Recover the amino acids of this structure.
C-alpha cells in the first residue's frame, strides 16, 4: 500500500511536469491545468490483472484514462472499460485511438502514449 502511494505521488509529479512542458497558448495551458486538476481525482480500476486509472471531467462529457507503468499493451476496449466502470456511462475512445487501431480489441503498444499524462475520451451518459 505504501509503495502504491509513493508510486502515485511520483506519477503525479511527472505528469504535472509533462503538462507544464507542452507548447500551447494561454487558453491551452489553462485547459491543461484544469485537466491536471481533474486527473488528481482519478480512481484505480482493475481490468483483468492490470490497473488503470480514470477520472471523470465535470459535466460527464469526457473521461481521462491511463494505466500503470508495467502494462506493455492496451486496447480501446480496456480504456473504455476503465472509464465505464468509474463513470457509469458509455465511453467511446474511437476518436482518441482511431489512428492506432481499427478494432476495439486490437492491442496497442502503450509506449506510443509515453509522452501523455492521460488519454481523454468521450462519454455518453
Amino acid at each position: 500500500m505504501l509503495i502504491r502511494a509513493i508510486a502515485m505521488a511520483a506519477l503525479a509529479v511527472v505528469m504535472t511536469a509533462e503538462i507544464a512542458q507542452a507548447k500551447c497558448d494561454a487558453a491551452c495551458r489553462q485547459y491543461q491545468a484544469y485537466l491536471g486538476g481533474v486527473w488528481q481525482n482519478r480512481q484505480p480500476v482493475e481490468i483483468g490483472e492490470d490497473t488503470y486509472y480514470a477520472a471523470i471531467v465535470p459535466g460527464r462529457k469526457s473521461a481521462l484514462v491511463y494505466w500503470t507503468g508495467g502494462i506493455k499493451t492496451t486496447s480501446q476496449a480496456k480504456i473504455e472499460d476503465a472509464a465505464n466502470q468509474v463513470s457509469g456511462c458509455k465511453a467511446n475512445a474511437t476518436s482518441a485511438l482511431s489512428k492506432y487501431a481499427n478494432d476495439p480489441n486490437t492491442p496497442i503498444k502503450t509506449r506510443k502514449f509515453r509522452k501523455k499524462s492521460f488519454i481523454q475520451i468521450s462519454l455518453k451518459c
